[in-house]
Amino acid sequence: MFTHSADQNTDGSVNLSELLRVIQFFNSGGLSCAVPPESTEDGYAPGGGGNQGCTPHASDYNAQDWNISLSELLRAIQFFNSGGYHACPGAEPPTEDGYCPGKV
Description:
This protein has one domain. The strands form two sheets. Strands 1-2 form a two-stranded antiparallel sheet. It has a two-stranded antiparallel sheet with strand order 3-4. Helix 1 (16-27) runs antiparallel to helix 2 (70-82). The longest helix has 13 residues, at 70-82. The protein has two helices and four strands; from the N terminus they run αββαββ. The protein has helices at residues 16-27, 70-82; strands at residues 31-33, 44-46, 85-87, 99-101. The chain is an alpha+beta fold.
């Protein structure tokens, strides 16, 4: 299973504290790689303009620009509301981020 970056405990769902972290990135105008990565719970730091040498956050996909847009935030909220997500790279029609709502 491909774990979404917002899913810090890797249980296949986005809980409230994990969703609030994505909201923090949205409200802070971006995100960057935490240095060192262990200094935060997910390896990312709020605020744009920092180190971008790590794997981009899965919520930052359209366009991948180290900034969480409203539509990207709403996608994380969809995963929260649906009780989970799963990787679906071959979905028809394809999804923008490679994930589908709901657990399998």
